Amino acid sequence: MPVDFSQLDFSILMDHVEIVLTVAWILLSYIVRRYTKRAIRLNQKIEHDKKRQRINAVDNIFNLLLVVGLVLVWSSELQNIAISIAAFMVALVIATKEFIACIVGAFYRASTRPYQVGDWIRIANYEGEVTDSDWLSTTLFEVDLKGGSYTYTGRTTVVPNSVLLLHTVQNLNYMRRYVTHTFSISRGTDDVNLFSIKEHILNNIREYSEHFHDVAIRYNSLIEKRLDIKISGPEPRVRITTTAEGYNVFTVSLFCPTDEAVEIEQKVTEDFMRFWYERRDLSIMKGELND
User: Fold this and answer.
1) Which residue has the higher pLDDT, 78 or 265?
2) CATH numeric code, 177-290
3) Which terminus of the chain, N or C, has fewer Cβ atoms within 10 Å?
4) What stretches pass through the bilayer (predicted)?
């Protein structure tokens, strides 16, 4: 009975055309390879060693043609798979970019060694003593450096290592023993000449610094040699300025032990206030006598 091809459902074959082509290509490659190798073996004019070399070459050529043919047949599917893999990798990198940046920051820290546990450091807006450092973060005990008390605030800051790639690291470890402490005292416009107080304050600061003066000189020189820079100190300095609002500003700078900075500041402030009120009262008395 003749076959009616019009009644065959070719949609199934069209949906699986890659599979059909793959099977056809594998069968064709197998048949052609087999008969080619057989023809070489039956050729009496070719030496035995030459036959082996040609058969090996045929195997390699047909293996390559088989792979190339399969790649061509499945090119669209492979392209979709490649796009999916690329999209997955991009999504993975985006999702873990902070983690990757932290790991890279850890390698940067290990290679440059800008700080170690126990150092006082400043990273971006974070500052304090390093208590722990791992592959992902650095833990700091916050120290009140901006406020000038140089004491622990009780707060702990965990800084991700990715910050190391974007911001500079300042090692403030030398400040643990000695620090250039600067503070200002502001007073309103009045009849007191602050320059008349300046020398008295400097004498008092020298008196408060006498017990550590020699050590401060040596430590100051040590820091300058280690950092290869010139830093202020160890002699105290006083600067008198004014503001646009009309205030007189009395600024004191001294190189002193970190744990004595606040105590000396309070003593100097007390001396300044005493001298200032004495000069003010004296000025008022002179004004009343002149009247």
Assistant:
1) 265
2) 3.30.70.100
3) N
4) 12-33, 54-75, 81-108
Distances (CA, A) of 281 to 189, 199, 276, 288: 15, 19, 9, 11
pLDDT tens per residue across span 30-83: 888 888 888 888 887 777 777 777 888 888 888 888 888 878 877 777 777 888
Each residue of 192-222: b (16+ CB within 10 Å) or e? bebeebbeebbebbeebbeebeeebeebbee
- Of 121, 153, 117, nearest to 132 (Cα)? 117
Predicted confidence (pLDDT) at residue 171 exceeds the cutoff of 70 = yes
Q: How many angstroms separate the CA atoms of 176 and 173, rounded?
A: 6
The residue ranges of DSSP E strands in 148-280, in sequence order, are 152-160, 169-171, 178-187, 237-242, 248-257
Place of tokens 């087999």: 34
Domain 98-174: give its CATH architecture: Roll (2.30)
Q: Is the peptide bond before 114 cis (omega within 30 degrees of 0)?
A: no
At residue 8, the pLDDT reads 47
Q: pTM for the full model?
A: 0.57
**For residue 214, how far is the Cα from the chain centroid?**
39
Q: At what angle do helices 195-208 and 261-290 cross, to 10 degrees?
A: 150
CA–CA distance, 38 with 160 (Å, rounded to integer): 69
| Contact criterion met (CB below 8 Å) for 126 and 140 | yes
